[in-house]
Amino acid sequence: MKYKILVYVIIAALLGFFLMLATCVRRIDTSPKPDEAAKTTTKEKPGARTIFTGSEHLLLGNPSNATAEESNFNNYLLDKPQFAISYSRDRGIPNWVSWHVNRDWMGDAPRQDNFRTDTTLPTGWYKVNTYAYSGSGFDRGHNCPSADRSNTPEDNTATFLMTNIIPQAPTHNRETWGNMEEYIRTLIEQGGQECYIIMGSYGKGGTGSNGFKETIAGGKITVPAQIWKVVVVIPEGDDDGNRINQQTRVIAVNTPNTNNANPDWATYLTTVDAIEAATGYDLLSALPDEIEQIIEAKVDAGPERR
Known about the structure:
Elements: H1 2-29, H2 34-41, E1 76-79, E2 84-88, E3 93-101, E4 139-142, H3 153-158, E5 165-168, H4 170-189, E6 193-202, E7 206-208, E8 211-213, E9 215-216, E10 221-222, E11 226-235, E12 249-256, H5 272-279, H6 289-295
Antiparallel strand pairs: 1-2, 2-3, 3-6, 4-5, 6-11, 7-8, 9-10, 11-12
């Protein structure tokens, strides 16, 4: 009798052990798989927001959802170390160029002045060369300026790729635009700021030193009618995306591509909303709606704010 009771006790103990083991296995099976766990560990702490995990130049978004697919030939993404570009094959110019600039991007490297073809464009596309602008009456106008990339000769050289260039009326380029670019660099060099900048153009037809033209280079390069720029200004620091708020300064201008443009760029101040309405782009799409809606609706006070 005692032997039978002992057997029953052992059997009951074994059943209990196996039941407990099965429960543990079920718990293990329902935990995240290794790849799922990796995804969860990349999330930021509660309350923070992730803006963009790729190119620093697209931190605030990809305004036209440009892609690096050859079939997307009029909204073709060139994501370079120095800036990001949405390029139009048929217009022969960028739709927009986006870049980040702070003290790290600026230094003593000389201006390279080596305008040249961007050979990274797909095979078979027309590739603009430096001579395409000769005698046109328009400057080879930078989107991302040479002086914003003066830390190394290699960075400066990148700004002279023809995919970063538009036909720009000389006075507009050298005075209106030059004055604005200098002001922005002053904010960085003397004001302890850093900037996220998007520049673009749209429309067809500008007035250079040889009069009005819609295209140059035998129709292969479109002369834009309007040139715009949006500048998001924040104090120097880290975790830039999470430091943009409803009080962040945003400078937006939309200017005519004409040789009689006003040298005072502040006369062309506008809102991001107005530029979006004209272009169809979503310029600060990576920001939370409650921040984006506020800062896109404001007109900046201009240089006197500095």
